[in-house]
Amino acid sequence: MKIRLSTGEKTFAIVNYTFLTLLALLCILPFLHMLAISFSSSAAATAGRVGLWPVDFTTASYQYAIQKREFIAAFLVTIRRTLLGVTIDLAVLILTAYPLSKSNRELPGRTAISWIFVITMFVSGGLIPTYLVVSGTHLKNTIWALIIPGVVKAYYITILLNFFRQIPKELEESAVMDGASQIRVLLSIYLPLSLPALATLTIFDTVGHWNEWFSGMIYMSSQIKYPLQTFLRGIIVAPNYDLMDRTQMELMAKISSKTFQAAQIIIATVPILAVYPFMQKYFISGMMLGSLKG
Amino acid sequence: MFRIRRIAALLTSVLMFAFISGCSPSANSGGSSARPDISQMSEKDRWLGKFSETVTVKLAVPTNAATEFPPGDSYSENVWTRAWLEELNIKMESLWEAVDAGGDYETKLNLSIASDDLPDIINFKTFSQFDKLLKAGKLEDLTWHYENFASDALKTNISLAGDAIEWGKTSEGNLMGIPQKGVNYQNTRMIFIREDWLAESGLPDPKTMEDVIAIAKAFKDKDPANRLGLPFFKTVIDDGMCDIRGIANAFGAYPRAWFDDGTGALQYGTIQPEMKTAIQVYADLYAQGYIDPAFASLDGGAVGEQLTSNKIGVIIGNSWLPGWPLNTLYDTDDVNWKVFPLLPSSTLTKPFKAQTDAATGQLLGVRKGYAHPEALLKILNFSIAMTDDPETAQPLKFHSDPAFPDYGYHMYNPIYVYWSDPMINFDTQVHVTDAIDKKDLSYLKTPHDQTQYNNTIKWFEALEAGSKPTGADWAAWISWYGEGSAFAQFNYYFANDLYFTSALTGLETDTMVKQWGNLKTIEEQYITEIVSGTRPVSDFDEFVATWKSLGGDDIIKEVNEWYKSK
Q1: One domain for residues B379 and B306
Q2: N or C: which end of chain B has fewer CB within 10 A?
Q3: Are A221 and B328 in contact (CB < 8 Å)?
Q4: B179 and B200 inside one domain
C-alpha cells in the first residue's frame, strides 16, 4: 500500500531535501575544489582558473610532497600517535566510565569521584603549569607528550557513563546470578551492547588526535618530530612579508604554492575520511530490543 | 583554533607576569660575568679565533617550514653549524625549533622563560620579551664583550644603522642586547604599472599621484567587466603588498609612524588630518567602483590571484612584488611592468617624503650565567666574514649557489642575523648595472654584487640565446638592472633625501604593551569602514577621539617623555 503524502508534506519534503542537498554541497565543494587545485598546474591555481576540475592536469605537487622528508616524518608521527593514543584513550575511558556508571551503593563515593572528573571540563591547569608538568616528567620530545596529557577525557567519560546507565540493570543481574565477575560483565555484556557509543567516541578521538597541532608545537623541539597538523600549520600560516632578497622571494613563491599546499592537505585528510565507512556498520540501533521479557 | 591560541597567549602572559614578579630581581646586573683573559690575544684571535676547548651553545631556532635542506641537513646540522665547529670550536645544540610565524616562536619562548630553561643565546622577536628578562635580571651584561670581541666590520655596520646599538642599553648605559638589524630601507612603497596596458591607454608616464590614480581608472574603464581599479586588501595599513601607505605618503601622511612636528614633540601619523585626505581618496575610489567591493576580506594571496589573472594594472607596493607574484604573470602572459618611485600629490604643500620601516627593536641577548658570552659576537663576526667581506667571503658556500638553486644556505644560519651594510642593495644595483652595461666584471665589488649579477645576467643570456627567460630571470632583471629597476627607486629616494623614518625605534612603552594591539585593530576597522562607505569620512574625527581615549593619549605622553630624555 502506498502512503499518499499531503501537499504540505510534499512541500516540506522538497524544501527539506533541497536544504540538505545545499548543506551537503557546502561541505563537499571546498574539498573538491582543493582536490582539483592539488592536481592543477601552479600557474593555473595562482591565477584562480581552477574550479572543480583540474586545469593542466599534473601530479607534480604530490610527487613533491611525498619526497619531502619532513612531511613523511610528520605523517608517520601522526599515524603512530593516533593508533597509540586512541587505543590507550579508549582503555582508560572504559575502565573509568564503567565503575562510575554504578550506583553509590555499589561504588561508595561515586558522585564525588564523578565531580572530580567533571570539574576538569570547566577548569584547567593553564598552559604553563601543564607545560612544567610535562617537561618535569621528561615527556617532552617523546610521542607520549602527545598522548598522556590528554588521556582522560571527561567529556567522553560522561557520554559513555550515561550510555552504560541506559543498559537495563537486569542484564547485569542475570549475568551475576550465573556467576559472572565484574570484568566478565563489562566484557560480555556492557561492551558489546555499547558498540554504537564506542564507535562514535573512537571516531571523535581519532579525529581529535589526527587534527591536534598545539601540543606538537609546544612539546616537540625539532621539526622532524612534529605531527602532521603542526607541520601543515607551519607552511600555511602567513609568513612574514618582510622579505629582502631574491632567495627569500623564491621561498615565498614556493610557500604560497597553492597546489603544493592543497596536495598536502588532501594527503592529510584522506586517511581520516577512510575511517568513517569502517565505523558505519556499528551505528546500529535496536540491539537491545527483546533482551528483556516480562 | 585562533581562540585557543589567544587564550593560551593570555594565560601565558598572566603567568609570565606572576613568574617574573616572583623572581628575586638581581638588579645589580653589572656583576662579574665570565671574562676570558684577553691580554695575550691579537685582534684576529678575539674576532674570529678558535676557542681552545669546544664551547657548546644552546639555541632556540626560529624556522621557516618551506626551507629546503640538502639531504641529511637540518637547522642543527648544516653548512653554518659545521663551520662554527671547525673554525670557531663552537658546537651548536638546538634547544628547540618553532615556526617563525603565527606567534608560535613567541609562545615557545614564553614557555622557555616560564620554565627557566633558556637558550644560551636568545633571539628576541619582540622588545617586551627582552624587557621582561632584562628586568628579571636574567640577561648577561655584554658591554665589555662587545667592546673587545665585536669586529670592526660588525661595529661599523651597526653604527651605519642609526642608533640601533642604543636599544639594548639600560639607562645606566650597560649593553644588554645586540640589535638584529637596522632601518629597513627596502620597505618603502613604489609604483608598478603594466607596460602593455599603459601603451594601449595612450596615457603618458605619471608625474603625480593624481596621474597614477587616473591611469588606474583608465585601465578599469577600458574593460570594466574584467578589470579592477586600484588593488586594496584587508591589511589596510601595514603590509607592503598594496596598503594605504603609498597614497598616504603622497598626501603627506605617515601611518603607524612617529614624527617630530618641529617643536621638539613627537606626533603619531595615523591620527593626523593628512591621513583623512588619504582615506578620502580611497573612499571616493570605492564609491566610484574602482576598488574591489570585497577588499576587506582579501589577503595577499587573493590579491596575487587578481594580479596573475590580468585584473590589475597598477599596484603601489613593495620592491619584492616582481619576485612574487608578478614573475608568475611574466611566465604565463609575458607581462612586463614599468617601475616608478612613489609620486607626490599635486596638492601637497610640504616636502614629499617616502616612508620606510623603522627598525623593529629585535635584539639578541645572552642568558645570565652562560660562560662564553663572546661566542655570540664571534658568530656574528663570522657571518659577516663569510658573506660580506670581499677578502674572506664564500658566497657560493654560505649564501646560494646557482648550481643548487633549491638551497638557500644563508637561510640555514640558526642565528639568522648578518649585519651586512644596510645600504648594500643600493650599491649592488649600481654595480650590477655597470658590470652588465660595460661588460666588465671588475665593477662587482662584494659577494652580494656577484650573487645578484649571476641572477640578472641570466635574463640577457636567455635573450641572446633567443629563448624566453623564466619568471625568475625577469624578476632579477626588473629588480636590479637600470634606472627603471625596483632597487634603483631606493637609490633615487636616497639621492634626493626623500626617506622618512619613524622617530620611534625599538621602544615599547607600558601602555603600548597593553593597548597597542587593540589600537591597531581600531585603526584598521575605522579605515575599512570609512573606505567601504559604512561610515562617512567625517567619522575620522570620531576615530581620532576614540583612539586617544583608549590609551592613545597616554602613549603620546610616554613616547614624548622618552623622546625628551634622549
Answers
A1: no
A2: C
A3: no
A4: no
Q: How far is the alpha carbon of B108 from chain A, nearest alpha carbon, in Å?
A: 6
**Residue B491 belongs to domain spanning:** 424-498
Single residue among B448, B469, B498 that ends a domain in this structure: B498
Stated pTM of the model: 0.79
pLDDT of B3 reads 46
**Domain annotation covers residue B441:** yes
B432 phi and psi angles, rounded to 5 deg: -65, -45
Number of independent structural domains in chain B: 3
ipTM of the prediction = 0.79
| B308, B328 Cβ separation under 8 angstroms | yes
Q: How confident is the model over B176-235, as pLDDT tens digits?
A: 999 988 777 888 999 999 999 999 999 999 999 999 999 999 999 999 999 999 999 888
Smallest Cα distance from B322 to chain A, Å: 9
- A68-234: CATH number: 1.10.3720.10
Same-domain status, B110 and B135: yes
Q: By C-alpha distance, which of B134, B145, B242, B157 is closest to B192?
A: B242
pLDDT tens-digit readout, B254-269: 999 999 998 999 999 9
Spatial CB neighbours of B50, under 8 Å, sequence gap ≥ 6: B87, B88, B89
**B443, part of any domain:** yes
| A231: contact with B, CB 8 A cutoff | yes
Which of chain B's residues have a Cβ under 8 Å away from the Cβ of A48? 305-306, 308-309
Render pLDDT for B521-555 as a digit per residue (tens, 0 to 9): 999 999 999 999 999 999 999 999 999 999 999 99
Dihedral angle at the C-alpha atoms of B178, B181, B182, B185, nearest 10 degrees?
A: 180
B419 in any annotated domain: no
Residue A242 at interface with chain B, using a CB cutoff of 8 Å? yes
Q: B21 and B77 in one domain?
A: yes
Residues in chain B closer than 8 A to A126 (CB atoms): 11, 15
- pLDDT, residue A249, reads 54
Same domain, B453 and B530: no
Pairwise CB contact (< 8 Å): B332 & A234: no
Report if residue B344 sits inside a domain.
Answer: yes
Q: How far is CA B59 from CA A59, B134, B287, B349, in A?
A: 39, 18, 53, 51
- Residues from chain B contacting residue A69 (CB–CB below 8 Å): 71
Domain ranges of chain A: 68-234
For residue A74, the distance in angstroms to the closest alpha carbon of chain B comes to: 12
User: Residues in chain B with pLDDT < 70?
Assistant: 1-33, 506
